[in-house]
Each structure stands twice: as C-alpha cells, then as structure tokens.
Design a protein that fits this description.
The protein is an alpha/beta fold. The chain folds into three domains: about 45 residues, Transferase, Pyrimidine Nucleoside Phosphorylase, Chain C (Transferase, Pyrimidine Nucleoside Phosphorylase, Chain A, domain 3, Up-down Bundle); about 250 residues, Pyrimidine Nucleoside Phosphorylase, Chain A, domain 2 (3-Layer(aba) Sandwich), CATH 3.40.1030; about 90 residues, Alpha-Beta Complex (Aldehyde Oxidoreductase, domain 3), CATH 3.90.1170.30. The protein is built from 17 helices and 13 strands. The strands form four sheets. Strands 1-4-5-13 form a four-stranded mixed sheet, sandwiched between helices. Strands 6-9-11-7 form a four-stranded antiparallel sheet, sandwiched between helices. It is globular and about 75 Å long.
Length: about 450
C-alpha cells in the first residue's frame, strides 16, 4: 500500500502525535513506508521525530515502529540448527569488547553476524578500530563468512533496515537522538533483522556513558528487553559501569592491540570480565550452556587455549586482510604496529605526587583524544586511527611521583595545550579512599538464570 493510497495525510499524522495522540500500527506503517520510499519530505520526517521526542510513545507504538523498521529491508534467514548471537553496547570509552567476544562465541560453535557502527563524539566505533588493520574491509557478505568462519564484524548495508539509515541521519540533525522510542527502535530493528537466536545488550551508565545514573540505564534496558522479546528475539541486558576506560587503552589502533592481547589469554582483567560475562549470558540464553557460570567458563577457555584467536585470524582473512598480516598479528609476539599505522609521537606524562590511583576519568581522556583526531564530531568525518592512549597504571595501584602513568600517541607535535586536562584525568589519593567495583552491576532478563 503506497503512502498516497492512505486516507490520512502525513501532516495529519504529525498533528496527531504532536497533540499527544497514539498512532495505530497502520499509521506507523504509513510513516515508515513513506520514509523508505522517499514519499515524505525530510522536513516532515523531522517534525514527526520531534513530536515523538516531545510526546513519547507507548510500548505498543514502539513495538509497531520497531517491527515496521525491521521489515523495511532485508531480513536474514539462517539454517534452523544455527545458534545466532549478537551483542550491542550503548557506547563508552575503551570499549573493544566486540573484538574478542565475536570470535570467542564462534569458537563455541555459535554464529555471530555482528553489524557494528562507527564512533561519534567521545565514544569509539568497532568498525573504526578494525579499519586500523591493513586491508580490513567492513563491507562484506555476511552469509558466506558465517558459513566459513562463524563470525564477522561488518557495517550496515543499504538493504538492512533502510528506514533506520534515513531516520538516524535526521535524528542527528534535529537533536532527537536521545528519544527512548527512537533509540529502542533503531537498535532492536537492526538486531531483529539479523535473525538472532539471542541478543545481550551492554547498557552502560556513569560519567563516560550516555546515561549517567543506573536508574536511567535500567529504564532503557527494560524497554529494549521488552521490545526485543516482543519481536521474537531472546533479549537480556547487562548494566555496566562506565566511569573509567575499559582496559588499558583508548583509541583505535591501540585498542586493537589490547584486544589481540585478550585473545592471546593476556590483557586487562576488566576487559576479560566483560567478555566472559556477556558471552556466558549469551551461551545460556540460547541454550548452549546449562548455566551462566558454565557459559562464562567456556568463553574463558576459548580465550586461554587459542581457539578464539584462530577464529579472529580466519575472520581477518575473510574480511580482506592478507594471510601474512593476519598470521603475524595473531602470532605469539606483540609487534602489532608492523601492520597498523603508528603515530609520529609517543609522549609519556609523569605522576605529580605519591599515592594510590583512585580514578581515571574516561570522559576527560576521550575528549582530549577526540581533539587530537581520534574521533569525529559528525557522521562521515575522517579520523586518525593512530591517535590513542596507553594507560600505564591501574585503579588501586600505589604509584610514585615522577613515574609515567600514560603514553599518548599523537601526530600533532605539541601537546602543551592539552596538558592541563590530561593531568586532571588521573586522580591520586590515600589507599584508604580506594573502593573496588566490578564492571558489571546487574543482569536483567525476563526469567533470571541459574547463576551456578
């Protein structure tokens, strides 16, 4: 049914929502079809998005919107015996979890068609990180790679949820990105089109997250879970803390290095915690593991025994990286910058006083790296993959005045304009003030699992 065949005009739909009315499924279908076909002007789409932002949507409206967006393009169909899994993060600093998680799940026999995005503002994008690797291509055929390797990390195609591509660009231009119904429909429509058996959402809260407090994050998570399950995707959510960077690196190339270390059974404890926790939840949710704990142990084993690393190497080759480069990156050594651009300068900053590391401000660090070229302010901007930071100390560690605490990778010759803000990233105090906290705060699922 075309837009012109409907009895209600699009201006009338805008007025209905603007005045606080509820759109029925047929009216929402009219809207999404008009968006995809181009029958509706951008100005009218913007007006509808602003009406949704102001008046909100009921659960029924949000489910209908998500379903129509999901059905606006291609929907993947997989063999019935496949366990098809994915993870979505709401974004943070140093979040390279997808890089070891996807191959670890594939090493467990699952299929992972991870359709990822690019970084915007202070948050990093998974595709940007992988494009640091010489030859890596994000525009690939998902079906063949899943058949051959078991996992892929690719960009959104024009055929997958085309309505979302149009709406997201206009949301960005009209300051309606933070609308709950629009966030939910954007995330779940893409994941629903992947034909998933199970989906886990990493909903972050804290200083460097979209949601600053746990209650706001929980509200979003519960809405995402409701819509995901209503559309037939087993959906759960993890609430995780996002004040300090994940792991010991922030940037694109440097985060690939840390992800490779994780895949080799090394690397930071908090990164391993998130990878094993999210992976364990997915293995339990899809029925592969009897309990979450057994799922976590299996993910940890695949990281330790090298099976996840082998899957990552195969994925690299399937996505355009030469066999020599893929093998070199995944060998036991760590000379990663043979195959990724290294910044012209590496500058280390010294600790100003003796004490214990109480905090590392992830948001402040990401903002500096953004200004140095690691991030983008608007979609489509070029970034510098070589810019980044290696954090040389850990939370709770006792440190001495004069020792190095961070190494900045940069191409601009002078860092002096950023010294003041960089020194505020590190918070030092008495060891008695230190309080440890797990990255994971809470797991939300309609039927809580057996944790033992």
């Amino acid at each position: 049914m075309s837009f012109k065949d409907n009895t209600i005009s699009f201006p009338e739909l805008i007025k209905l929502k603007r005045d606080g009315g509820q759109l029925n499924p047929a009216e929402i279908s009219t809207f999404v079809h008009g968006v995809t076909s181009g029958d509706i002007q951008d100005s009218q789409i913007g007006a509808m998005l602003m009406a949704i932002w102001q008046k909100g949507m009921t659960d029924e409206e949000t489910v209908a919107l998500t379903r129509e967006m999901m059905n606006s393009g291609e929907i993947f169909k997989w063999p019935k015996e496949w366990l098809v899994l994915d993870k979505h993060s709401t974004g943070g600093v140093g979040d390279k979890v997808s890089l070891p998680l996807a191959p670890a799940l594939a090493a467990c026999g699952c299929k992972v068609p991870m359709i990822s995005g690019r970084g915007l503002a202070h948050t990093g994008g998974t595709l940007d990180k992988l494009e640091s690797i010489q030859g890596f291509k994000v525009n690939q055929s998902v079906e063949q790679i899943l058949e051959d390797v078991g996992c892929c990390i690719v960009g959104q195609t024009k055929n997958l949820v085309p309505a979302d591509s149009v709406l997201y660009a206009i949301r960005d231009a009209t300051s309606t990105v933070d609308s709950h119904p629009l966030i939910i429909s954007s995330i779940i429509s893409k994941k629903g089109a992947e034909g998933l058996s199970a989906l886990v959402l990493d909903v972050k809260f804290g200083r460097a997250a979209l949601y600053k407090d746990v209650d706001s994050a929980r509200s979003l998570a519960q809405s995402l879970i409701t819509v995901g399950n209503r559309l037939g995707v087993k959906t759960g959510a993890v609430l995780s803390r996002m004040d300090t960077p994940i792991g010991q690196s922030v940037g694109n190339a440097v985060e690939v290095c840390e992800a490779l270390e994780c895949l080799k059974g090394r690397g930071s404890d908090d990164l391993k915690e998130l990878v094993t926790y999210l992976g364990g939840q997915l293995l339990w949710m899809c029925g592969h593991s009897c309990t979450v704990e057994s799922g976590k142990k299996e993910i940890a084993l695949k990281l330790e025994n090298g099976e996840a690393l082998k899957k990552f190497e195969a994925m690299l080759m399937a996505q355009g990286v030469s066999a020599d480069v893929a093998h070199s990156l995944c060998s036991d050594g760590n000379d990663y910058f043979r195959h990724m651009k290294r910044a012209a300068h590496q500058t280390e900053l010294e600790v100003p006083d003796n004490g214990a590391v109480l905090d590392i401000d992830g948001l402040a660090l990401a903002e500096v790296l953004h200004k140095l070229g690691a991030g983008r302010s608007k979609s489509g901007e070029e970034i510098d993959h070589s810019v980044g930071a290696e954090i040389l100390v850990k939370i709770g560690q006792q440190i001495q005045k004069g020792e190095s605490w961070i190494r900045i990778h940069h191409n601009s010759p002078d860092l002096s304009a950023h010294y003041s803000k960089l020194q505020k990233v590190l918070v030092i105090g008495s060891r008695d003030e230190y309080k440890s906290a797990s990255r994971v705060a809470e797991f939300i699922y309609p039927n809580k699992p057996n944790m033992s």
